[in-house]
Amino acid sequence: MKLAETVTFGGSALDRAGEIRNDPEALAAARAHPDARAIALWRGKPLIKRSRPAELLRLPMDHPALEDAAADLILLGREEGAPRFAADLSAWRPEGQGEATVGAFLDPSEQHHPALADDQVFAELRRIMTWLSPRDAELAATAKAILEWHRAHRFCAKCGAPSEIRQAGWQRTCPACNAGHFPRTDPVVIMLITHGNSVLMGRSPGWPEGMYSLLAGFVEPGETLEAAVRREVFEEAGVKVGAVSYLSSQPWPFPASLMFGCQGEALSEEIEIDPVEIEDALWVSREEMAAAFAGEHPNILPARKGAIAHFLLEHWLADRLD
Length: 322
Known about the structure:
Elements: H1 24-32, E1 37-42, E2 45-49, E3 55-56, E4 59-60, E5 74-79, E6 82-88, E7 110-111, E8 120-123, H2 125-128, H3 134-152, E9 164-166, E10 171-173, E11 180-181, E12 186-195, E13 198-203, E14 215-218, H4 225-237, E15 241-252, E16 257-266, E17 280-285, H5 286-293, H6 308-317
Parallel strand pairs: 1-6, 12-16
Antiparallel strand pairs: 1-2, 1-4, 2-3, 2-8, 5-6, 7-8, 9-10, 10-11, 12-13, 12-14, 13-17, 15-16
């Protein structure tokens, strides 16, 4: 697919500076670099300048807000030679600011640190992802995913002892048994399944009313992407799939997946959903999907903008899947 890397979170060609992650002297020099900056996050929400387009803020390393950051900064890479780090401010408590929706499917809340300007806020990445430039989106997604991994993997999976951050945040090592642990990314297939002029759509419980998306599921050990597509579609909707091809991928840091967008040809139209997996599935014609994208369909809302499902459907409607 020629436009594959124009998907949200893709295509910015960030220099990840992997060659200095295990070099203490180079890392110290990077932190002391006059153009070094920190990408700040609070409970997974990146710090932005509230505007359209939004701007991912890059704080000077001595910014007062970073006094509330965890001691270990994560090296994200370099922009035109200038080091970029991720700083976790999750220990800071935003007194009197909304926290009830933090972590929810829809989180409209914003949190403001007193050391920052009024238009500089922490905002949920799914809400703002289409407001960001490709580079800002990649930095934010990388920072969110790696910090979430550290939060969830503080103890050694081999012996249970507390582990320690190494390689500028890209490894955890257990001092008790010397086991090394590396960031986890879960492979997920998401499927544009078509039959004639229609595409197969489904919805999960708890989604906004009327919202439908492409079917998706985790790849199992020992399974190819093609086999995962066929298995997941049959398990969720009872539809058998023939030919499968790859289209595009998207890092999806909620919390840490890599979405493999695939196209598949359905061998039949009969649907028999598994209610444990999904709430509903249906075939949607190209004309109906165009109406949904235009906000004119009476019952269907399209997949969230910025998600690979929306991306694939948009290009399917425009005949740009080659």
